[in-house]
Amino acid sequence: MMQEKDRALLERFAARLRELYQEAMIWAFGSRARGDAHPDSDLAVLIVLDKVTPQIDRTIRDIAWEIGFENECVISTVLLEREEFEHGPMSESTLVANVLHEGVRA
User: Cβ contacts of residue 26 below 8 Å, gap of 6+?
Assistant: First the structure.
């Protein structure tokens, strides 16, 4: 079960992203989502957007760094385009399976 402080961090990050990308689907996954993180564990986040460009990737990484820095937590991001997430090879990956199974949606 995700800790309250991690859930709050996820929601803050998601809110910032949705100011720019309203269609974003966002999940935390990994140890912080499961609730078994160590103090130095990162907050792993999968973000699915209609389109991903290098500029969008950079913007999201900058937001992750800023919010993570303010909260003393590294936010690691994985970006996928919706088509890739739903129908591409990644849709069959263990990453997507784990996110859908154990992830916490924002």
Answer: 10, 13, 14, 17, 45, 46, 47, 48, 105, 106
CA dist 88 and 73 (Å) reads: 31
Please give the CATH number for the structural domain made up of 4-105.
Answer: 3.30.460.10
Domain borders along the chain are 4-105
What's the predicted TM-score (pTM) here?
A: 0.95
How far apart (Å, rounded) are the C-alpha atoms in residues 2 and 4? 6
DSSP letters, 39-91, are: TT--EEEEEEES---HHHHHHHHHHHHHHHHHTT--EEEEEEEHHHHHTSGGG
Residues 87-99 pLDDT 10s: 999 999 999 999 9
